[in-house]
From TrEMBL:
InterPro entries: NXPE4_C, NXPH/NXPE. It comes from Gouania willdenowi. Keywords: Membrane, Transmembrane, Transmembrane helix. The chain crosses the membrane at residues 21-38. It comes from the Eukaryota. This is NXPE family member 3-like.
Length: 559
């Protein structure tokens, strides 16, 4: 931009008539008003693309949603319909807690095998689950959140089951029998249906129960304001940080004395607990939150070798992605999972670039690889260990591994806004190719929002994946889904397993039919003998990395 210099002419004193003086006063008032107006609508100074409304949607609705096409809207509605949870009991001011699901009064029973008496590898085991209330009377509605698995702790074996809701208080869990020996059934009530009713309400009415902060600084002046994708209507001016490329919305309340352009840091703000006293009773450990359901008879079966003339698994049976045997994850799909030690990891990744994107559960992968490979040295970028970005390089074997967190919402320690990058934008910056591995996850930080926000974020990432595979079809793209975790009352209302389970269904639907691969963290945690944890224990991470590397080097001969 070329600046022009204007030289003012020399004038003597100017005498104006009375009407001229009034005109100058009015002009001055108009200028003052324009300057004030520009400062208060600074929210609209960002160069938004044409498809982003210049009117802030938060003044019209509670949450802002990324604009999508008509075709995507139809797909979104189809996905929402496919994951619709069974109807759950309503919670009114006079509801009775004793009528809610009681896991201690509920029971499960193994259904007898048809035909031959012995259970054999390849059979499908069925378990009937009957849920009762705190008066030990049968429930007449469905919607309880149940997890089921079969394990043998001596063999370090385990496989997840599928739970079918019959909508009347009865459920069926089915499992494939995949090893010889004892198979012990575990059924866990994660949430009663009444708690799901509350979680549904919270994600609609209290989507801002986790809030975020941004720090603004100019010179010696520093201010902090609240940010979110769901900001309640306010008369206070708002800064619009909607991403220009993806259209992902993000807003912050404008600082009182600073410009929107002075934002320097993002951080987790805090948590609001919007439960009533009655609702709080539905999220109690050892009472109705992640409580095992007991068996009315035997809780195990003995499995024998398969008959030679019988197929292992028929098409009508439930088929999980894999199972554990002797602590090793074995696939039930098309991939053969190899076991990688340090030399074979180096051999597999030699000459490759591995880009990891997501939350702290993906950061575990970066930490594992950096620890396992002695020549993979992490650069000291003077970045907080909890936020990143991170980079490790093995110069000798030409291996580069990077990690970067996904864009907001993300509940991290203070992180520079320059490091807040959306996964879709990062994928667009990758050249790709046969020596490039991309892995990402996104789930744990979106559990308090309407599902539409998650669906549209995945659609945005999917578009970027399609562009990446179009320009570089040999690029390997791997997705890690969410996993079950230990739950307390507070964790339940901010990051429930129920919501994570829904997110996993959405993820499969959005990426169905694409040339991408899944590391099924949900089943790998559920089937393992270790306790569930937001950050799975090292033995589980090792198995996840083995799956990742088996996608990367399917022909590698490993131990």
């Amino acid at each position: 931009m070329i600046e022009q210099s204007f030289r003012s002419p020399k004038v003597k004193a100017i005498f104006l008539p009375k009407c001229g003086f009034i005109f100058l006063c009015l002009t001055g008032c108009l200028i003052i008003f324009i300057l004030w107006w520009m400062d208060n609508v600074e929210v609209q100074k960002t160069a938004d693309p044409p498809f982003i409304s210049q009117l802030l949607p938060i003044n019209m609705s509670f949450c802002a949603f990324r604009p999508i096409s008509l075709e995507e809207t139809l797909e979104e509605n189809k996905i929402l319909k496919s994951i619709a949870w069974p109807q759950t009991p309503t919670i009114t001011s006079d509801y009775t807690f004793k009528n809610t699901t009681d896991p201690w009064c509920s029971k499960f029973a193994i259904l007898p095998k048809k035909g031959e008496e012995k259970w054999r590898i390849g059979d499908q085991l069925e378990v009937r689950i009957v849920m009762n209330d705190f008066k030990c009377l049968p429930k007449t509605s469905g919607g309880d959140v149940l997890l089921a698995s079969v394990k043998n702790r001596h063999l370090k074996a385990g496989v997840s089951g599928k739970v079918v809701d019959h909508l009347n208080g009865n459920y069926t869990a089915v499992f494939p029998l995949v090893w010889e020996g004892k198979a012990e059934i575990e059924v866990i009530l994660v949430h009663p249906g009444e708690a799901v009713t509350v979680l549904k309400r919270l994600n609609g009415e209290n989507a801002d129960r986790v809030y975020f902060n941004s720090t603004f600084r100019s010179g010696s002046v520093t201010e902090t304001t609240v940010c979110n994708v769901c900001l309640r209507p306010t008369t206070q001016p708002v800064c619009n940080y909607t991403d220009i490329r993806t259209g992902e919305p993000w807003f912050c309340l404008k600082p009182k004395s600073l410009s929107c352009n002075t934002r320097i840091e993002h951080s987790k703000g805090g948590y609001l607990h919007p439960l009533t006293n009655q609702e709080n009773k539905l999220f109690k450990k050892k009472i109705n939150l992640r409580v095992p359901v007991q068996s009315s008879g035997s809780s195990s079966v003995t499995v024998y070798q398969q008959n030679k003339d019988k197929p292992t698994v028929t098409s009508s049976m439930f088929r999980p992605s894999g199972f554990y045997y002797k602590g090793v994850w074995k696939s039930l799909g098309t991939i053969q999972v190899h076991q990688f030690d340090t030399p074979s990891i180096v051999q597999c990744l030699r000459g490759k670039v591995v880009h990891l994107y997501g939350d702290s559960t993906m950061r575990q992968w970066f930490e594992y690889l950096t620890k396992e490979l002695p020549d993979l040295k992490e650069f000291t970028l003077h970045i907080d260990k909890g936020t990143g970005p991170f980079m490790s390089l093995d110069y000798k074997n030409n291996i580069l591994v990077t990690y970067r967190c996904h864009g907001p919402p993300i509940r991290f320690k203070p992180i520079s806004v320059s490091e807040l990058r959306y996964i879709a934008n990062e994928l667009d910056n990758i050249k790709g190719g046969s020596n490039t591995v991309v892995a990402f996850t996104i789930w744990a930080h979106l559990g308090t929002f309407p599902m539409k926000i998650y669906i549209r974020r995945l659609m945005s990432i999917r578009s970027a994946v399609l562009r990446l595979l179009l320009r570089a079809p040999d690029t390997l793209v791997v997705i890690r889904n969410g996993n079950p975790q230990a739950l307390s009352t507070s964790i339940s209302i901010f990051n429930s397993d129920w919501y994570s389970l829904q997110c996993n269904k959405v993820l499969r639907a959005v990426f169905k039919g694409m040339n991408v691969h899944l590391v099924d963290a949900w089943e790998m945690v559920l089937a393992h003998q270790l306790p569930h944890n937001l950050h799975p224990e090292p033995p589980i991470i090792k198995n996840m990395i083995n799956v990742l590397l088996s996608y990367t080097c399917p022909q590698t001969q490993t131990k």
